[in-house]
Amino acid sequence: MDIQIREATIDELPALLELNQKIFVKNPQFDRDLILDFSLTPEGIEYFKKEFKREDGCFLFAEQNGKLIGYVNGGSKKFAHRKSKYFEIDNLGVIPEEKGKGIGKLLLDKILEWAKRKDYQKIYLNCYAKNSEALSFYKKSGFNEIDIGLEKTL
Ligand SMILES: CC(C)(COP(=O)(O)OP(=O)(O)OC[C@H]1O[C@@H](n2cnc3c(N)ncnc32)[C@H](O)[C@@H]1OP(=O)(O)O)[C@@H](O)C(=O)NCCC(=O)NCCS
After folding, report:
1. Rounded distance, CA 100 to CA 24, Å?
2. What number does CATH give the domain 3-140?
């Protein structure tokens, strides 16, 4: 497989929004409160534009024969009450037809390498409790649970 992991550029925002829609198709199963097609709403476009432009961030695409098949991005995360310098992965995913081929791991390894070069000491991320494939994936790569988000409808 001829897969390239490379930095994204700002002119690729429309392609990213389309890619994001393809990747996170299962999220409504994990979160009934999710705004469907969020990345295509004005708020979603603004969110991704900011993620692209983060000076403290890293945004990588996985590309195969000119086709975008996955991405990962993140940036610094401040925890006032913790000692280490944290990097947070905000999004990571691969299109459904390319899952299970090592591309997620390739993206994860590259962003971890990047964070290490920038002297980050720990990596943090959020994952839906019901997203068992992502939880297995991260645990295989050495991530451990540190906190659990709870919610209740009033
Ligand atoms: C989670 C995700 C990124 C994994 O990417 P992937 O390319 O399919 O994973 P890889 O092929 O690189 O697998 C790497 C390792 O994780 C394991 N893994 C991946 N998916 C798994 C699954 N569904 N169940 C169990 N283990 C899994 C693989 O077995 C592999 O282990 P190995 O190194 O021992 O062989 C992918 O399933 C995805 O894009 N999901 C939708 C988006 C998403 O939920 N992202 C996470 C948001 S928090």
Report:
1. 15
2. 3.40.630.30
pLDDT, tens digit (0-9, with 9 covering 90-100), for 92-104: 999 999 999 999 9
Tokens of 148: 């659990």
Q: Is the CB of 101 under 6 A from ligand 1?
A: yes
Copy the structure tokens of residue 95: 């299109």
Q: Is 16 in the pocket of ligand 1 (CB under 6 A)?
A: no
- Model pLDDT, residue 1: 65
Query: Whose alpha carbon is nearest atom 25 of ligand 1?
Result: 136
Alpha-carbon distance values, 23 to 3, 68, 126 (Å): 17, 11, 16
Does ligand 1 come within 6 angstroms of the Cβ of 130?
no
With residue 123 as reference, give the H or E element that holds it. Answer: strand 122-125
Domain assignments of the chain as residue spans, ordered by start:
3-140
